[in-house]
Each structure stands twice: as C-alpha cells, then as structure tokens.
Predict the 3D structure of the following.
Amino acid sequence: MKFAIALFSPPHAPSSRRALRFAEAVLAGGHEIVRLFLYQDAVQHASAALVLPQDETDGARQWQTFISDNQLDAVVCIAAALRRGVLNDEEAARHDKPATVQSRAWTLSGLGQLHEANQLADRLICFGGP
Amino acid sequence: MSTLHVLSHSPFSDSRLSSCLRLLTPGDGLLLCGDAVYALQGGTAQRAALELMPETIALLALAEDLHARGLVQLPERLQLLDYPGFVASSIAFDKVNTWL
C-alpha cells in the first residue's frame, strides 16, 4: 500500500508527533511512503535553526532523522516556507536574505507535489490541528 | 465509498464533531484522537451523540490519547487503536478525511 502524508501543524503540536508515529507504523507494516509534504505552519519542521531546551522533545529533529534514515521524499511548500523564513541557499540569494536555515532532509518545491503525491498514493493522510 | 473521519479537536471548543456526525453514512468510521477523545467523557451531550450513532458506523479512538486523559467507562462499541491499528484502519476504509 502506498501512502502520502501531509502535515499542517508545527513541530510542537501533538499532531506532528502523531503523524511521525503513524509514518513509522506505515514503514514497519511493510508499506511505502511515496512522499511527505509540509504545508502551512508545518514548514517549521524544515528549519535547521530551531533550538529547544534539552528536556523537551525535538520533533523537527526526530522527523529529519526519520527521513534521512529511510531516505524518504520529503517536500516543503515553497510559498509557505518563504513567508516563514525557511530558505535554502538559492532562495536566500534570490531574495537577498542573510541566512539559510533549511534542513537538508527536506526539499523546497511547489504545492503541485502534494497533488502528484495524492495521485501516486493509495491513501493521502493529513495531520494538523492539535 | 467508505470514509474514515479523523478528529483531533476538543468537541467542547468547536462544532467539528457535530458537523462530522451529520455527514457520516453507513460504512463510515469515526476516529477520535488527541483532545477529540474528550467526546467520550461520560454524562455529556457529545458522548450521548456518539452512543446514538447507528451500529453501521464504526467508533474508534487512539488508545494512547484515551489513556493519557484518564477516560474510563467507555462505550462497548469503541475500538481502541494503537498506531499499527491506525494504519490498518486507514487501509480498511476507502479514504481518510482529517478534520484539520
């Protein structure tokens, strides 16, 4: 079974953790994740500049590790990312901004990638809100 | 075409649950996770509404969210899910609609 997973909530939201546990269970069950997609406030997951207190769970890092370990196709909506300051080298240069904060685990791309993922997958599962 | 509706907002802070209940058709499922499991709290109108759902609609909840909130005296029809169960349910229904 092929899954596409879209996430709409920031790393500190319980729904982000729920999505990660779900994604882990998808792979553990022998299924495939064709793409992960970050939209709206979920683009914060793609920031490599988040600093959390040591006694708090770092959801963004857990996602980045999960993606790297499983070599998943992980895409961030570029429009949602730029307005929240999540830039890669190319976008930082293009918009004359001083910093690049995008994690290497994720790729900036367009909303069309979510549409395509929905076509490629048997199920699109969305996580957002609390 | 069966749909699994997934709710995570508290049913005491908005109208997602009541809107969702109106849309459910035979063969559909309702999965409560996060604060949405508070709909199972005894003695509330939300719990009563869930109990009035036809048997043709499956009632599910994410076990860890129920346990984290200490909810007890649950309806007999309620199916508790772990994450592998969540994945299995998302396959068992034709599509999954999350109430974001």
Summary: Helices of chain B lie at 16-23, 45-51, 63-68, 83-92. The mean pLDDT of chain B is 97. The interface with chain A takes residues 8-10, 33-35, 62, 83-84, 86-88, 90-91, 95-96, 98-100 of chain B (CB under 8 Å). Residues 3-99 of chain B form a domain with the Hypothetical Protein Ychn; Chain: A, fold (CATH 3.40.1260.10).
